[in-house]
Specification:
Helix content is about 80%, strand content about 0%. It has about 240 residues and is mainly alpha-helical.
């Protein structure tokens, strides 16, 4: 217990290597005297220290070194949710999306073993959501609309209540002339928090226009009151659709 609590003190002071040494001693002593509780605790916290070291290296963009620390933590304590969460962050930075999905799934599987398991899984899902959202947005800029939608669908599987996600999906579906799906995406975006509702109404107007729903298209374009699409919306209202 003395080794363990000394390790905790050093960990809190961010003296990582000294903390690891104390946790190793604690685990070895606990094993020697048959104290399963402190053996498990010592190994768990030793893995947490490795994960913290990995996170620090990740911030410095030392990816190989960070990976080595996360793997060291998992070797010490195979159920280290901290280390697997760190590997989620690493996979996002490296844009290794298959690894990211696998690590999020691993974090989910460890929920029963960790007091903060559900919290870490929630954080891991947000990491994955952000990674796939950004990947989809990049594809959208490159006009790779089908790839964008594939990434947006992955993002949606981790977090569905995002206005910007559904707006981006509407944009991609308009470009692919999938009018009904685009309309559904845009309507969903309007029920959620979005940066600019005018942008959403413009896309919604385009989707209605593509589907031949003039009345609904006019109503949507008239709600475009700010942003870069105002002139385009007015042109559609006055010249193309000749809205009343």
């Amino acid at each position: 217990q003395a080794y363990f609590w000394n390790g905790i003190s050093l960990y809190q002071k961010r003296q990582f290597d000294h903390a690891i040494a104390q946790f190793k001693k604690g685990a070895n002593m606990a094993a020697l005297i048959g104290n399963a509780k402190y053996k498990k605790l010592s190994r768990d916290y030793e893995a947490r220290v490795y994960a913290s070291k990995g996170n620090s290296l990740l911030l410095q963009k030392k990816y190989k070194e960070a990976a080595a620390q996360y793997d060291a933590g998992i070797k010490v304590y195979p159920n280290s949710i901290n280390a697997y969460y760190g590997k989620c962050l690493l996979a996002k930075e490296l844009k290794n999306y298959s690894e990211l999905k696998a690590m999020v799934a691993k974090v989910k599987s460890l929920i029963p073993t960790s007091r903060k398991g559900a919290q870490y899984y929630g954080k891991a899902r947000q990491v994955a959501f952000g990674a796939f959202l950004n990947a989809g947005a990049s594809d959208l800029q490159k006009e790779n609309y089908k790839d964008a939608l594939a990434n947006f669908d992955q993002a949606k599987s981790y977090y569905d209540a995002s206005g910007i996600l559904h707006y981006y999906m509407a944009v991609a579906n308009v470009k692919l002339k999938r009018w009904d799906t685009a309309i559904a995406n845009a309507r969903k975006a309007l029920t959620l928090q979005v940066h600019s509702r005018s942008d959403v109404y413009f896309i919604l107007g385009q989707a209605y226009q593509g589907k031949g729903m003039k009345t609904q298209a006019c109503a949507s374009f008239k709600k475009v009151v700010k942003g870069p699409n105002v002139k385009s919306a007015k042109y559609q209202i006055k010249t193309v659709l000749k809205c009343k």
